Every structure is written in structure tokens, then in C-alpha cells.
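ok so i was messing around last nite and threw this chain in just to see what happens. nothing serious, just curious
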Amino acid sequence: MNPDRTLLLVGHPTEAVRTAKELGLGVILLQHKSKFEPAQAELADETFLVEYTDWTVSGPLAEFAHRRWGFAAAVSLTDPGLEIAGRVNDRYGLGGTGYDVSHLLLNKAVMREHLRDKGFRATIGFELVRDERSLLAFGADHGYPFIVKPTDTAGGFGVKRVDGPADAAALWQWIAHTREHGMDRGPAALFTITDFIMEEFVDGPEFSVESFSFGGRHIVVAVTEKDIAPGHFAELGHTLPARIKPELESEIVAVTTEFLDTVGLRDGVSHTEIRFGADGPVVIEGHNRGGGDRILDLVRSAYGIDLVGYALGWPFGLVEPLAERPTPNGGAAVRFLHGESGVVGAIAGVDELKERPEVIAAETYVSVGSRVGPLQDDFDRFGLVAVSGADSHAAATQCEKLIAESVRITVEAEVGA
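result:
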């Protein structure tokens, strides 16, 4: 491997490894055993199955790899690996995003403190949860409802809406239990619960913004509308380009670029989540990675831009910087499959959809016999269908039509439940 063309990848899926190899890069992969696929080892030049979220493990491995083969960049596009890649970039002076920015974006409380201290306009009131009394005090100071969530997880896990003082006692008991026992579903091995944050509630439509930063120059590639519903914190779908008025989109773009400047992100892909409330756009979360939920596939379909390829190629000068916001050549949408609690009895229609030319992806996360619970967060979804179309409306309409007409996932009540 040529050290000047070798990349340390932290926690990437198979397609990202394949993209790096297609760019002509040498690849040293640090992967968690729960995310490993044999194809990753076949593609990567060197693969280490480790608890890479533990710096006492990944740090010495990075040192060994740097001495043995050398590498010119460290990149991660998954939350559990971002701080590790940042530490590596800092240690060896590789440029790219370092630990401080990665940590600031990963830890929601640190991000809120930073935005407050910098006088960032599109933020909200917050406090860390200390005890049951702190929940009651926040409600008294900021009003109800308000939101409580872990400072350092993803996928909507542990997000709770507090509607009044009567919710405080039970919620505090749940927080104490979760701090002690951790996550009970989803990628539990990759996230550690530390603190919980209280935030003012913003009522309004939600959007995400996919951007790429070229040496501090931020280009918003796509604004995506989220399909959400009251009663839970699972995202039910995404559609891009967002179907909103140009003046609202301009406000979202302006807030996003200001946010990226404020947090100090200078290079790479980013995913910013924004709610448009009564007083305008408010940043809910920001990440120095691309959006999940197949959003990057939607971007590739509608805009012809591979943001994973940009993220891996930019540190090596293998991609040309975008001069301006791209124009979409169509629309794309993803909708998630969900249902009642119980045991999955049958799955039909999903595999057949993969053969249709407009289908970007069709997959299930559950199998026959899986126990499924009520829809609370992203980890309770059954699967997805993603579709391209002539425009956003056509893609969303076709996606929902295909699911309604073709997909059948039956869930049977558990005996004795």
C-alpha cells in the first residue's frame, strides 16, 4: 500500500469500503464484530475486528497501522467511529475533522453549550437532567411540552416528550434504569448512555440538510423533508428535494451554513436536522457524517452526487469541489415499514420490488419469528422501500403506492400477551 493513498476507515459498511477501493485507495479497516461482513475483509487491504469505540484499543491499533503501512487520512461516517477518526487525525496531523469538532457534534449537550456561548441564533433552551427535581424545574422555566433525550445516541432512541409535571417521576425512574443498564435494543454495543439533556420543544415541520464542506466553504446539496407523526419519535420517511417554498428553503440553507461555521466544521460531509418553528428554523442536531435511512442513496438518485465518494476522495484530492448548489434531475423518497406489536408471521412482496427500475432499495430488518414492539423509535421499524421519480411528489406517491399494493408483513399477537 502507498501510504499517501491509504485510508484508515473506522466502522464502515461494505459499500463504503468498495467505494474507497474504486477510488484506488488502500484501505485499513477497523470494524466492530457486530457490523462485520466477509465482503469487507475481501475488499479491504487490512481488517481488524475490534471494539473500536474504545480508544485504549483503537489508539494502539492505529499506531501499529501507521508504523507498519502508513495512511494519509482517517475517516468515519458512522456515529460511534467519528470521535476515534478525529483522534487519529489529531495524533498524526492528517488534517480533516479532529476530535474536538467530532465530539461537539456527537454530544448534544456540548453542542448546545457551544452554540449558546457563540451566540448562535437558531438554538433552544436546554439543561442536563440531574434528578427528578431538575425535570420539574425545567418545565417551570421553559414550559410544557419539552423533550428529554440521551446526549450521545442516535435513531430517536430514548427521546421522550414531557407533557406535564405528572410525567417527571416515571421518567426519572426510566432515566436512572437506562443509565445503569444501557440500551435495550438497536446497536447497543456501539453506544454508551452517559447523560440526558432537556430541550425546549419546537413544534413544526422537520427537515434534514445534506452538505459538503470544502476547506470551510459549505455547499448544501439537498434539503430533505421528514415524514414524522405524533406519539413516537420514529422517522417514517424522507423525500427530496423538500417540497417547500423557496424562501423557507433559503432560510434553512442560511442557518445550516451558519451552523457549520459556528461548530468549526471545515471539511467533509454533514447532516443537519432542522425544525421550522413559529420563530423560524431551529437546529435540532448536527453530524459530521451523511444522513442514514438511505438518504445518501436518495441524494445519489436525485442529484447524481455520491457523498460517500466525496467523503472518501476529498482528503486525497480525488474529487473536484462543487462550485455551487447542484440542480436535481428528479426526486426520490423512502418510506419505512411498520406495524403492530407481536411476532412476525409472514413477509411478502419486498424482494419482488427490487426488480422494479424505479426502486432504489427494498429491504426488511425483521424476519419470520421476530418479536416486534410498539413503534417508539427508528429501531422499531420493519424495513423500507426507496423509490426514484420524475420529481419529489411522483417519487413519494409511487413509493407509498408500491408499499400499499405489494408489501405484506403480518404480525400475530403473542400467546398469553
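not much to say yet. The two ends are 57 Å apart (CA to CA).
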